[in-house]
Amino acid sequence: MNNFKFQCATKIVFGRGAELETGKEVAAISKNILLHFGGGSIKRSGLYDRLVKSLREAGVTLTELGGVQPNPRLDLVKEGIALCREKGIDFILAVGGGSVIDSAKAIALGVQYDGDVWELFEETGKVGEVLPTGVVLTIPASGSEAGNGTVIKNTDVGLKRNVNDEKLRPRFAILNPELTLTLNRYQTACGVSDMFSHVFERYFAPEQNVEYTDRLCEATMKTIIHNGSIACAQLDHYNARAELMWCGTIAHNDFLQAGRTPDFASHKIDHEVNVVCDCAHGASIAVLLPAWAKFVWKHGVQKFVQFAVRVFDVEPNFENPEETALEGIARLEAFYRSIGLPSHLQELGVKRENFATIAKNCKTFAGDQVGNFVKISRADMLEILELAF
């Protein structure tokens, strides 16, 4: 187990009616805020009216900025930065899922930054003061409500990039599972896939002696599988939604990576897949995770056997552990299909001629590689993409 420091500064307010406490939580931090959201769903559902009432009763002045799209765009981030500067706004409330939260965090990064906020994503600038943010979560998936990162798409240069910094963790996150009951099956399934991937890519770490977090990861993955299947079959199942909402937060607040090194190779590749096809992240990562596993499993047979046995209850074949490892990967693919997610990139509109661009644009690290369980080169990415096709 590695040395580690763990601190998650995000206060969680969880349960039925939790959004009614938004005004109190916000007013303790700011009285002049940006209310950031996506399309019209929060207005159609009545959530917008409840939030505005709560905020105004608490004496909070709000300025609205809607229009966040899946795979949030840099141009709206820059609009939000300009708006915050103009209005003297010092707090951002994100109402929505991961895209809205990431957009809010990116705005928070840029308001007091003396330069183009994209420099921070390109790592040519340094993160300074960051506005505080808060979240009312409507789509459990990304874990951004308690995470320290943001991911933004720059359509001008065709790249998707991230920034990670402890200052980006929201001050609070309002989690009411009732707000997720309006999600359709596909949205629910994509959220399940997204949160599962956050645990999976922490589970496959290079460290050997991490038994406690191994078992925490396994319990979280099993809970996601069980309740994800229920929620996709019964969209109004509150208890399954509640389990998923909490799993999604824990999956990406760094608790499950204490003492271990996460991989995230699949995520890095998937960012550029999302630029090419502009598909839901949860859908494309459901294709890429099994492809990555098929490419690397021989480098860690025993870990893949452990995954198969403990997460998918595969009966171990002690004479042929390779068979057990491959069965675990097959069951992961079968689970994704069972909740209505794709199995191939071509189902998402990705073409073979896109592979070179995806690999070329992927944000790599030391040695021009991604990943930690197994180091993945750009040439390896092409093979993984072929396996995913």
CATH fold node name of the largest domain = Dehydroquinate synthase-like, alpha domain
How does the major sheet shape up?
6 strands, parallel
CATH superfamily of the largest domain: Dehydroquinate synthase-like - alpha domain
Strand share of the residues?
A: 5-15%
Order of helices and strands: EHEHHEHEHHEEEEHHHHHHHHH
Helical proportion? 40-55%
The backbone outline, from C-alpha atoms, is: globular
Structural class designation: alpha/beta
Secondary structure tally: strands:
8
Q: Can you count the helices?
A: 15
Unreliable stretches (pLDDT < 50, length at least 5) are none
- CATH architecture assignment of the largest domain: Up-down Bundle
Strands of the largest sheet, in order across it?
A: 1-8-5-4-2-3
Query: What would CATH call the class of the largest domain?
Result: Mainly Alpha
Features:
single chain; 389 residues; alpha/beta; Rossmann fold; Dehydroquinate synthase-like, alpha domain; 2 domains; six-stranded parallel sheet; two-stranded antiparallel ribbon; 8 strands; 48% helix; 11% strand; globular
